[in-house]
Amino acid sequence: MTPELITKIIRKRLADGTYGPGTQLPAERDLSVEFGVPKWVVSRALRPLKDIGDLHSSVGRGTRVPDPQSLVPLPGIREIEQTLRSRIGDGTYAAGTWLPSAATLAAEFGVVLSTIHGALAPLKGEKLLASLGTLGTYVVDPQQPGVPPPDRASRTVAYVGKVLRERLSDGTYPPGSPLPTNAELSAEFDVASNTISRAISPLRAEGLVFSRLRRVYAARPITEPPGLASNATRVLDGDLKGGLDHA
Predict the structure, then answer these.
(1) Strand-pair partners of 215
(2) Which domain holds residue 131?
(3) Are residues 159 and 141 in the same domain?
(4) 81, 123 contact by CB (below 8 A)
(5) In this structure, what CATH number is given to the domain that contains residue 128?
(6) What is the pTM of this model?
(7) How far apart, in whole angstroms, are the C-alpha atoms of residue 218 and residue 203?
(8) What is the CA radius of gyration of the chain?
(9) Are 179 and 244 in the same domain?
(10) What is the pLDDT along the chain (247 residues), one digit of tens a residue?
(11) What is the Cα–Cα distance from 107 to 112, expressed in whole angstroms?
């Protein structure tokens, strides 16, 4: 099942009240089981609904349907800066540890990446935070201000490239299908966007992926995992039939 078909089904459920205002959607892993697809397909399907405000995600609360009666303004750069400053002060983000990625913070606060970068800038200027190439941003330890935290495998270009190569090989990304966007992969691996770009570059050079209209697609002809097509048809038919019965 394609992300576009899942988006269509979720949009229909929003319209008919299956997912009403203020309610929480099933977890992405549960939706992936329902639709018989990998979790990244569900993430991509939900993205356009989040972009137009039909859904909202936050760390620790999952994905919810906004309730117009209880909407509050999104935080600005100054408010996010103060929240991060408070977390550093109270030890939520301990000295000498990695900060969540900008993509993760953007999802938590419901803002675009540029807002997060703006909030981080003064904290870096005060030497409370520091960034290290593609590895990310960390909380500076006053006792060892020049020493970053130990590296994590999930933050390396080599690790991300290895995982993407495995997914191309085992059919997680079927031939001709678009890979998740850089932003989606950044959030999944908790890395900067340029780490994703560097991981994809050798795959493109080897002909395993190709780019078109600013998207990256799987190129190697791999057999699609069995069972997905029949499951997709069953779920879609059930939802659309239900919609016709209630029309």
Answers:
(1) 212
(2) 77-151
(3) no
(4) yes
(5) 1.10.10.10
(6) 0.47
(7) 10
(8) 20
(9) yes
(10) 888 999 999 999 988 888 888 788 888 888 988 998 888 899 889 888 887 778 877 655 678 887 766 555 667 889 899 999 999 999 999 999 988 888 788 878 877 778 888 999 999 999 999 987 767 889 999 888 878 887 666 668 888 999 999 999 988 899 989 998 888 888 778 777 788 999 999 999 999 999 988 889 998 654 444 444 444 444 444 444 444 444 4
(11) 8
| Nearest CA among 92, 86, 85 for reference residue 129 | 85
Which amino acid is located at 195 in the chain?
A: T
* Residue found under tokens 């996010």: 80
131 and 84 inside one domain: yes
Q: At which residue do the structure tokens 């008919």 appear?
A: 16
Amino acid at residue number 233 = T
| Contacting residues for 227 by C-beta, under 8 A, at least 6 apart | 36
Beta bridge partners of 216: 211
| CA dihedral over 84, 89, 92, 94, signed as positive or negative | positive
Residues forming beta bridges with residue 129, ordered by sequence position = 139
Query: 3-state class of 141 per DSSP?
Result: strand
CB-CB neighbours of 176 under 10 Å: 10
CB atoms within 10 A of CB 209: 22
* Lookup: tokens for 149: 């935290």
